[in-house]
């Protein structure tokens, strides 16, 4: 009841205070602006996150595990995929590692080999730590597809190609990469952020400057 009275009081003040109070009132009532989930997942289906690096953009293969495990942990914590239905990403990366150049497995086949019904396929399209002309600007461009292995079809996006999005890591000016360990730490941080952002595509969340979406 108190919250309702507060809301009515704030609304009553609007004609007096003018438009300058409108945005703060909206924020107080509705909370921070939200970014809607890109698409939904069925938490009851066996799901695996597969991070692919066809162009060898990642400086270290281990970063594939960092991205994938970050995404799957966030998905489970948010209840987007039930813990019992999340298949370890390491299993599908292992299967992909058995491929030969002359015989590559499809995403559907890789998913079936680890008993996954749904594959969250993410390809690393670009990876950089610094911008041209100098200065740190860690970011990664990723392409996303959702594959249903039982139906043998792509369920997202429904059009050709992948859904592309960029993850940008905010970096303070004091941070440097003058040593290999500093460079590795920055790469680790960007990979962790990528995994977190992949998961956030599947649930509503507060808007922030972490990433930009583009088709």
How would you explain this protein's 3D organization?
There is one protein chain. By secondary structure, the protein is α+β, with helices and mostly antiparallel strands. The chain has one domain (38-214): 3-Layer(aba) Sandwich (Rossmann fold). It is built from 6 helices and 9 strands. It has helices at residues 2-17, 22-30, 62-77, 89-97, 107-113, 180-200; strands at 34-35, 47-52, 86-87, 118-130, 136-148, 153-156, 163-168, 205-206, 211-214. The strands form 2 sheets. Strands 2, 3, 4, 5, 6, 7 and 9 form a 7-stranded mixed beta sheet that branches. A two-stranded antiparallel ribbon has the order 1-8. Strand 5 (136-148) and strand 6 (153-156) form a beta hairpin. Helix 3 packs parallel to helix 6 (180-200). The longest helix is centred in the last third of the chain and has 21 residues, at 180-200. Residues 1-21 have low confidence and may be disordered.
């Amino acid at each position: 009841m108190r919250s309702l009275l507060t809301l009515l009081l704030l609304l009553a003040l609007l004609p007096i205070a003018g438009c300058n109070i409108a945005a703060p009132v909206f924020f107080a009532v509705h909370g921070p602006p939200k970014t809607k989930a890109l698409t939904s997942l069925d938490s009851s289906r066996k799901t695996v996150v597969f991070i692919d690096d066809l162009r060898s953009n990642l400086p270290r293969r281990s970063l594939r595990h960092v991205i994938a495990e970050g995404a799957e942990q966030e998905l489970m914590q948010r209840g987007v995929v039930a813990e019992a239905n999340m298949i370890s990403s390491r299993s599908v990366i292992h299967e992909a590692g058995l491929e030969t150049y002359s015989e590559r497995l499809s995403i559907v086949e890789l998913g079936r080999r680890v008993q996954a019904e749904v594959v969250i396929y993410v390809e690393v399209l670009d990876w950089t730590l610094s911008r041209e002309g100098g200065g740190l600007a860690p970011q990664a461009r990723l392409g996303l597809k959702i594959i249903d292995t039982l139906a043998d079809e792509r369920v997202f996006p429904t059009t050709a190609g992948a859904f592309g999005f960029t993850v940008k890591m905010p970096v303070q000016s004091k941070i440097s990469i003058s040593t290999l360990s500093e460079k590795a730490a920055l790469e680790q941080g960007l990979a962790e952020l990528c995994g977190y952002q992949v998961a956030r595509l599947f649930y509503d969340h507060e808007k922030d400057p972490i990433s930009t979406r583009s088709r």
